[in-house]
């Protein structure tokens, strides 16, 4: 029976797989592929992609679609003791079609946040599903403890962590205004591409506010096991927070 099974096309390691027919310099193709996730040195069948390349494209596209439409495993945020809230979006479809609602809360939710979370902390950490729920499920258990250990060592006070369902980046501004944190961080799932469906971004802002432009934010992106590893990203974030605290600013005004 095992001989009749079709192999999982998504399990193929493409980092050094060259499918060009009779390449002039195979080793140069291998070396080049190791530097990028782009689909290069794949060859063609006439004017079209080869079957293997096309099927892998479709499989990776399916992973990206699943990342957008799936839900965060809430056991992860429960184990890390995050307060769970939801933006004004009622469901995933509304989240996709109404980005503005993903940036705001109801008055009742803002009251819940204000009453259940500490105010006036140095750092407030938020996690949001964003456009990739697997990014939270896969990376939060590694990056969050790293951040907490780093902030404790630095002597920063840290607020109660908050998980926002159907979150857009700018939702961090509402939480910052409600809790008056010096620095607010949102760990949020990135829009998935064809390289991974688990990429996380960390957006940070000093005295984050709805009255400030998008340029107030500093970002560390491409956080996942095959990109910037979560533990390494955590160390980088802590270093940036130090710079923000010293300069009392963030975004384009922060000189790193």
Gross morphology: elongated
What fraction of residues sit in β-strands? 5-15%
- Report the count of strand segments: 8
Instruction: Give Rg in angstroms.
Output: 21 Å
Strand order of the largest sheet: 3-5-4-6-7-8
Unreliable spans are: none
The total count of helices amounts to 8
Average pLDDT figure: 90
Multimeric state? single chain
| SS-based class | alpha/beta
> What's the helical proportion of residues?
25-40%
Instruction: Give the end-to-end Cα distance, rounded to a whole number of Å.
Output: 58 Å
Task: Note down, in words, how this protein is organized.
- The chain has helices spanning 26-33, 51-69, 74-79, 92-97, 107-116, 133-154, 171-179, 230-247, and strands spanning 44-45, 48-49, 83-86, 123-128, 162-165, 183-189, 200-206, 218-223.
- The longest helix is centred in the middle third of the chain and has 22 residues, at 133-154.
- The strands form 2 sheets. Strands 3-5-4-6-7-8 form a 6-stranded mixed beta sheet, with helices on both faces. The chain has a two-stranded antiparallel sheet with strand order 1-2.
- Helix 6 (133-154) links the parallel strand 4 and strand 5.
- Helix content is 38%, strand content 15%.
- The chain is elongated.
- The chain is α/β, with parallel strands linked by helices and 256 residues long.
- The model has no long low-confidence stretch (mean pLDDT 90).
- Helix 6 crosses helix 8 (230-247).
């Amino acid at each position: 029976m095992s001989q009749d099974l079709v192999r999982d096309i998504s399990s193929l390691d493409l980092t050094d797989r060259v499918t060009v027919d009779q390449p002039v310099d195979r080793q140069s193709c291998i070396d080049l592929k190791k530097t990028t996730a782009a689909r290069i040195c794949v060859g063609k069948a006439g004017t079209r992609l080869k079957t293997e390349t096309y099927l892998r494209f479709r499989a990776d596209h399916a992973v990206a679609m699943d990342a957008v439409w799936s839900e965060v495993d809430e056991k992860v945020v429960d184990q890390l003791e995050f307060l769970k809230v939801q933006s004004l979006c009622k469901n995933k479809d509304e989240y996709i079609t109404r980005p503005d609602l993903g940036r705001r809360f109801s008055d009742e939710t803002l009251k819940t946040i204000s009453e259940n979370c500490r105010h006036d902390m140095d750092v407030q950490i938020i996690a949001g599903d964003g456009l990739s729920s697997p990014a939270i499920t896969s990376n939060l258990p590694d990056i969050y403890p790293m951040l907490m250990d780093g902030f404790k060592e630095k002597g920063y006070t840290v607020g109660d962590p908050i998980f926002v369902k159907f979150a857009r980046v700018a939702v961090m501004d509402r939480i910052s205004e409600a809790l008056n944190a010096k620095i607010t961080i949102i760990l949020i799932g990135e829009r998935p591409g064809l390289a991974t469906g688990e990429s996380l971004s960390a957006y940070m802002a000093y005295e984050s506010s709805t009255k400030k432009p998008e340029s107030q934010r500093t970002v560390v992106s491409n956080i996942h096991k095959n990109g910037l590893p979560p533990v390494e990203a955590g160390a980088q974030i802590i270093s940036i927070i130090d710079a923000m605290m010293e300069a009392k600013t963030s975004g384009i005004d922060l000189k790193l």
